Amino acid sequence: MTLHARLVVTRPAFTLDLDLDVAAGEVVALLGPNGAGKTTALRALAGLVPLSEGEIVLDGHPMHTLAPEQRPIGMVFQDYLLFPHLSALDNVAFGPRCQGASKAEARRTAAALLERVGLADRAAARPRQLSGGQAQRVALARALAVRPDLLLLDEPLAALDAHTRLGVRSELRRHLADFGGATVLVTHDPLDAMVLADRLVVIEDGAIVQQGAPAEVARHPRTDYVARLVGLNLYRGLADGPRVKVGELLISTSERLEGAAFVAFPPAAVALYRSRPDGSPRNLWEARIDGIERHGDNVRVHLEGPVTAFADITPAALAELDLAPGQTIWASVKATETHAYPA
Amino acid sequence: MGAATEHHRTAPARPPWVLLVPALAGLAFLVLPLAGLLVRAPWSTLPARLAEPYVLEALRLSLVTATIATAMSLLLGVPLAWLLARTDFPGRRLVRALVTVPLVLPPVVGGVALLLVLGRRGLVGQWLESAFGITLPFTTAGVVVAEAFVAMPFLVISVEGALRAADRRYEEAAATLGASRWTVFRRVTLPMVMPGVVAGAVLCWARALGEFGATITFAGNFPGTTRTMPLAVYLALETEPEAAIVLSLVLLAVSVVILASLRDRWVSAP
Fold first, then answer.
1. Residue A146 C-alpha, separation from nearest chain B C-alpha, in angstroms
2. Predicted model pTM
3. A-contacting residues of B 167-206, CB under 8 Å?
4. Where are the bilayer-spanning segments (chain B) (predicted)?
5. What are the residue ranges spanned by the domains of chain B?
6. Per-residue pLDDT tens for A295-327?
7. Which of A125, A299, A311, B107 is positioned for an S-S bond with A129, CB 3.0–4.6 A?
8. A228, A244, A272: which is the final residue of a domain?
């Protein structure tokens, strides 16, 4: 149940072109900003969007020539699309019925799946009587009921409120771990991707910009989008030993590299001073405050200057430094707080 | 929420006379004839007149033919509406325009056209008679054909509108679950547009029930076989005006019932 796909979808103002390999039992998350083409990629895998070029091969069998209803897939849609006129049980039984099971047989399969997602007591409910979390689980059960080789999930948690999301996310993770086929899931939420996926594939403007294990991607972001997602300041520059030249600024790092390199550091590592400090920090630059906003329990300061950066400080520090947008300030980062890696 | 509360705050504007006077005149114009019908009705002899065989015969014929015409329209009209709403073929706009022609065509013209095609010497009628021994004009079947010809477009337009408004992603979801296109139509599309189908069928039935021009032209006016209620009303008016009023009251009652059943659909303003 290994998936190998090359998806090319050409539209007037947009081209999607990516290679995707998913092993049996593996969960791959397509992560990217809105309009990056993640959902188009998923719909192409399902056959709902025709490929302009490329192929989809599942277990050695080409699948891109088949109509959606002939593909061995199960799909969970963003707003679930449970059939409003059918009960939860009949929604789940729909797939097995289409595969030729008798009504009783299909309902038995459906009942067993509803039991598995903990909704045996809601079998008779219509979709509009279900809560968001319940509807999500029915949608998952419906997709699994066709015993797919490839499971596709489009923003499976996006329609849920924060509280429900937490529970459903960990439950979904458990069900995905039990699923033997290949899973491709689309999300724009880095937390969902980190928790649910074995591997992240980051898409921007229709192409893959980075992929790897979640921890690896989080530690070594390669685009501004990924850096923002994982909450790091990221710069691309030219390394020369223990220093990386980013624009006009020379950033000292703990690693020694040569050539093109990335430098990343967390916003909390940036210290702010009203006047030029003396002493150890070697990475020091003069910046202008572009904006100040709340960020969790702290305050995030947007800095303009030789590099654009975010600095997280405590509300107490903000009051003490008496900062305001437009002000000029000194910023510094210790070399030990930075992390450099080859570009 | 904002819009609703704001609406409450502004004092209701007094309608200008220029609009109010014609509006009331229009209302009177629409309501008075119906009121007249009720005022002039021979209430004392009503039960006896209603029980007269020719009234019951006409009513039964009207109900039966309108119902069969509606069933025929459903059988042919729903697939036609699906074709117009869901597929794209060259000349689709033209086909859609042709489907709606009977809506605006004077029914008498429709009756003449049916005679020319399905009449004994008509293009198709000739063949129907020689091959199957079927003659449509001046038969009860002819009444059904005339009614369906005039009423089916109402159903097609209503169902096509419902199909266009329906969320097609449900059909995609059904396809990913392995449903063939026929299964998708039967188990997802049709149940979801059912309110539109019902509204269209009721409208179609009401139109068929009131059909006069095409029926009298194509099927004639024979008691028991082709004389439906509207034809009986017209005929009674010449000989026995009170009977015409009674028959009209029956049709009015049927119309009111239909209006009430559609109240929550699209007859009521939002």
1. 7
2. 0.81
3. 167, 169-170, 172-181, 183, 187-188, 191-192, 194
4. 17-39, 59-85, 97-118, 138-159, 188-208, 243-262
5. 51-267
6. 888 899 999 988 889 999 998 888 888 888 888
7. A125
8. A228
Rounded to 5 degrees, φ, ψ at A239 are -85, 145
**Token pair in block for residue A153:** 């999930």
> Residues B181-233: pLDDT tens digits?
999 999 999 999 998 999 899 989 999 999 999 999 999 999 889 999 999 99
CA distance B187 to chain A (A): 9
The residue count of chain A comes to 343
Residue with tokens 């797939």: A95
Q: Which two tokens stand for residue B236?
A: 């009674």
Chain A positions with Cβ closer than 8 Å to B? 46-48, 67-71, 73-75, 77, 81, 83-85, 94-95, 98-99, 142-143, 145-146, 152
Co-location of A237 and A202 in the same domain: no
- Cα–Cα distance between A268 and A9 in angstroms, integer? 41
* Type of residue numbered B47: P
Q: Which CATH superfamily is domain B51-267 in?
A: MetI-like (1.10.3720.10)
Give per-residue pLDDT as tens, B45-100.
888 888 888 888 898 999 999 999 999 999 999 999 999 999 888 988 999 999 98
ipTM score: 0.82
Tell me how close the Cα of A291 comes to any Cα of chain B, in angstroms: 32
Asked if A46's CB is within 8 angstroms of B174's CB, the reply is: no
- Residues in chain A with CB shorter than 8 Å from the CB of B170 are 81, 83
